[in-house]
């Protein structure tokens, strides 16, 4: 069985340039990941709404972690099983909430 790589990355100052917030400097590395069939998992403090456009721009469909670990988003068909606690969200994606729901924090 061939080995597959999984790369985990933050955004600001790592995948994205700290000044311009562009990913063009990482283009060659991202292309190499795609050629190898490797996953690129973004782990960030940003919200899903901030990450979603970047994934479209990168043409990636890999899991990502938002809000400092508050939730994991993954394509519904990414694994051959459903993640425990996963809820369906936008366009066949699943969300696994890891943090305490807001309604419990403000109750």
Overview of the molecule:
This protein is an alpha/beta fold and 107 residues long. The chain has one domain (6-105): HAD superfamily/HAD-like (Rossmann fold), CATH 3.40.50. Helices cover 23% and strands 24% of the residues. It is built from 3 helices and 6 strands, in the order E-H-E-H-E-E-E-E-H. The protein has helices spanning 27-36, 48-58, 102-105, and strands spanning 6-9, 39-43, 64-66, 71-75, 86-89, 93-97. Strands 1-2-3-4-6-5 form a 6-stranded mixed β-sheet. Helix 2 links the parallel strand 2 (39-43) and strand 3. The chain is globular. The model has no long low-confidence stretch (mean pLDDT 90).
Q: How is the topology of this model organized?
A:
Layout: E1 6-9, H1 27-36, E2 39-43, H2 48-58, E3 64-66, E4 71-75, E5 86-89, E6 93-97, H3 102-105
Parallel strand pairs: 1-2, 2-3
Antiparallel strand pairs: 3-4, 4-6, 5-6
In CATH, the homologous superfamily goes by the name HAD superfamily/HAD-like
Number of helices: 3
How many strands, what sense, and barrel or not for the largest sheet? 6 strands, mixed
Whole-number tally of structural domains = 1
- The total of beta strands comes to 6
Which CATH class applies here? Answer: Alpha Beta
Helix share bin:
10-25%
- Roughly how many Å is the radius of gyration? 15 Å
Task: Identify the overall geometry.
Answer: globular
Q: Largest beta sheet: what is the strand line-up?
A: 1-2-3-4-6-5
Low-confidence parts lasting 5 or more residues at pLDDT below 50? none
Distance between the termini: 51 Å
Mean pLDDT, as a whole number? 90
Spell the H/E element sequence: EHEHEEEEH
Residues in β-strands, percent: 15-25%
Structural class by secondary-structure content:
alpha/beta
């Amino acid at each position: 069985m061939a080995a597959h790589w999984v790369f985990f990355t933050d955004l600001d100052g790592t995948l994205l340039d700290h000044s311009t917030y562009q990913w063009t400097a990482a283009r060659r590395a991202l292309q190499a990941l795609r050629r190898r069939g490797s996953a690129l998992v973004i782990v960030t403090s940003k919200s899903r709404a901030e990450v979603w456009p970047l994934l479209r721009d990168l043409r990636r469909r890999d899991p990502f972690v938002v809000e400092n670990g508050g939730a994991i988003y993954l394509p519904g068909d990414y694994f051959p099983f459903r993640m425990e606690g996963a809820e369906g969200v936008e366009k066949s994606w699943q969300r696994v909430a890891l943090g305490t729901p807001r309604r419990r924090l403000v109750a």
